[in-house]
Every structure is written in structure tokens, then in C-alpha cells.
């Protein structure tokens, strides 16, 4: 009798595994896929355990192409992208910031000769006296310009690091997710005199969403329900910390001054009022503050 029950349980587990549906997403690159896959799988498991397997898309394709495949219901079920009003109109978003706003935090690269340039910088007006360099297609250009900072634009990625080396601009703002890694790589490969500034962080509200096809209400419902469950039980915080604690320890030291910019491109519907969905930064000389409120 007991053997028969064990056989039935095993058959049920195997059956669920065999019939789990692949949910394919287009992410933000190989460095971030591990986080997104674990997060997405946990969300799906908390909504309908064993029904879905989260997998990253196997090809490297432009972001817009991923949204086209999403719309045509071919190959991709979910695309990760910035929260913009245009995308909210065209696709169905799961309105929870999957990166807790981390992608909106910038550290700056400087020439080694200018490592102390930003030592006494505390305000946006002080920052405006210095010239940043940025990739010409970055949305950051519009955000910085909205805040009164004109950038020097470059169309060649490695060329921007070389321009900083030649002091064509004062600083190169980069996501804290990539800045240290990229600086080390190009410093070594091209013998460039560049360094990570130790004094400031620049931040503005940025939100990445999971997007599904406009009429894919079933998947959207599972994602919404599962996401809210892992926020409530603490799993979201655990997964985020597991994958990003090193970055946070490196840059969120409490000693860096924070320069806050406004993001005119952010949809008004982004849930900035939900403090539990965003990173917090504690200054060494003040009380803890939330990200943007």
C-alpha cells in the first residue's frame, strides 16, 4: 500500500516536471541572467508551482526586436525593459521594479590625475560645472540635459574610455552594476589612466519591468500574484541581496555624497510610494533616506 502511494507521488512529481511550460524571457545580458532567471522562476513557482520553467532567450538580439517577437507571440514570452509610457501603452507590464531602482544609480569614472575632483561636490549645481561623456544613444543624455547638464557624446564604446583618458571630458557616469568591471577591463587592455571616483553617486528613478504581450492576461496574472507573494514573504529581498550584495557593499558605503536628478521620462504610474520596492541609502552624517521620496 505504502509503495503504491510513493509511486503515485513520484509519478505526480515527474508528470508536473514533464509538462512544465517553458517561459522564455529576453533579459539584460549574461551578467544579469542568473538573477532574472532565479527571480522569475521563484515568482512563477509562488503563483503556480511546477507549471512553468523560466529560461533566458538563447540569442543576442536588439531590444526592439525582442518586443517585436513578444507582440507576434513568437519565441519570447517576457521582455525586460525600462518603464516608459510608450511601452505601457503597447504591452502589458507587471508594475513592480525588478531591480529595486539599482540601475538608476551611477558611479563616475575619472582620469587618474583627477581622482579628487569630486571630493567636495555635494550639490547638483556644483556638478553642473563639470562635463560628462556618454554613449550617444543612451537615454541618460536626455535625463542629464533635463537637469541642466550637457554631455559630450561618443558613438564608439571603447572610444569613450579613450576620450576620458585624453581628458576630453571630466567624468564618465556608469551604472554601479558595470562601472568597476568595465574600468578594470579597459584600463588593463588599453593601458588607460582611468579610475573609479570614490566620492559621489548620481541617482535618478529608473524602473525595469517584466513585459508580456498585451492580451496575455493569464501569464500577467501569474506574474503579478507571484511577485506580490515573494515581496510579502521576503523572498524578493533575499534573491536581490544574494545577487547584488557585493555591489551594494562596494558602493553603498554611507560615505559617498548622493546627487539626485529628476527623470522626466519616468511614467507617473511607477510605484515610487512603495518604499519596500526600492533601495535605501544611509548617509554617514544623516538619518536613513528612501530612494526618491
SSE map:
Elements: H1 2-18, E1 21-26, H2 30-47, E2 52-56, H3 63-71, E3 78-82, H4 85-90, E4 92-94, E5 105-111, H5 124-127, E6 133-135, H6 140-146, E7 152-154, H7 157-165, E8 172-175, H8 179-190, E9 194-196, E10 200-203, E11 208-212, H9 217-232, H10 235-251, E12 257-260, E13 281-282, E14 288-289
Parallel strand pairs: 1-2, 1-3, 6-7, 10-12
Antiparallel strand pairs: 3-11, 4-11, 5-8, 5-9, 5-10, 13-14
Helix pairs in contact: 2-9, 2-10
Description:
This protein has helices at 2-18, 30-47, 63-71, 85-90, 124-127, 140-146, 157-165, 179-190, 217-232, 235-251, and strands spanning 21-26, 52-56, 78-82, 92-94, 105-111, 133-135, 152-154, 172-175, 194-196, 200-203, 208-212, 257-260, 281-282, 288-289. Helices cover 39% and strands 19% of the residues. The chain has 2 domains: 2-101 and 206-249, 3-Layer(aba) Sandwich (D-Maltodextrin-Binding Protein, domain 2), CATH 3.40.190.10; 102-203, D-Maltodextrin-Binding Protein, domain 2 (3-Layer(aba) Sandwich), CATH 3.40.190.10. It contains 10 helices and 14 strands. This is Solute-binding protein family 3/N-terminal domain-containing protein.
Amino acid at each position: 500500500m505504502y509503495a503504491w502511494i510513493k509511486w503515485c507521488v513520484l509519478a505526480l512529481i515527474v508528470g508536473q516536471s514533464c509538462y512544465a511550460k517553458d517561459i522564455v524571457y529576453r533579459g539584460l545580458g549574461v551578467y544579469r541572467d542568473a538573477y532574472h532567471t532565479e527571480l522569475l522562476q521563484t515568482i512563477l513557482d509562488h503563483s503556480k508551482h511546477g507549471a512553468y520553467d523560466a529560461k533566458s532567450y538563447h540569442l543576442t538580439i536588439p531590444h526592439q526586436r525582442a518586443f517585436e517577437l513578444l507582440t507576434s507571440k513568437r519565441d519570447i514570452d517576457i521582455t525586460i525593459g525600462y518603464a516608459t509610457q510608450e511601452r505601457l501603452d503597447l504591452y502589458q507590464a507587471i508594475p513592480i521594479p525588478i531591480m529595486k531602482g539599482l540601475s538608476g544609480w551611477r558611479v563616475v569614472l575619472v582620469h587618474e590625475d583627477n581622482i579628487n575632483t569630486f571630493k567636495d561636490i555635494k550639490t547638483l549645481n556644483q556638478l553642473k560645472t563639470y562635463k560628462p561623456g556618454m554613449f550617444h544613444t543612451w537615454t541618460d543624455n536626455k535625463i542629464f540635459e533635463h537637469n541642466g547638464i550637457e554631455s559630450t557624446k561618443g558613438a564608439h564604446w571603447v572610444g569613450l574610455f579613450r576620450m576620458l583618458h585624453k581628458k576630453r571630458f571630466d567624468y564618465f557616469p556608469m551604472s554601479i552594476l558595470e562601472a568597476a568591471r568595465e574600468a578594470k577591463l579597459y584600463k588593463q587592455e588599453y593601458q588607460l589612466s582611468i579610475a573609479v571616483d570614490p566620492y559621489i553617486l548620481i541617482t535618478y528613478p529608473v524602473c525595469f519591468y517584466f513585459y508580456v504581450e498585451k492580451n496575455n492576461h493569464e501569464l500577467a496574472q501569474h506574474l503579478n500574484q507571484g511577485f506580490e507573494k515573494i515581496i510579502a514573504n521576503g523572498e524578493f529581498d533575499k534573491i536581490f541581496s544574494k545577487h547584488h550584495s557585493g555591489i551594494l557593499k562596494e558602493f553603498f558605503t554611507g560615505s559617498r555624497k548622493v546627487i539626485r536628478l529628476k527623470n522626466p521620462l519616468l511614467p507617473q504610474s511607477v510605484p515610487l510610494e512603495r518604499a519596500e520596492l526600492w533601495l535605501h541609502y544611509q548617509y554617514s552624517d544623516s538619518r536613513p533616506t528612501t530612494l526618491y521620496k
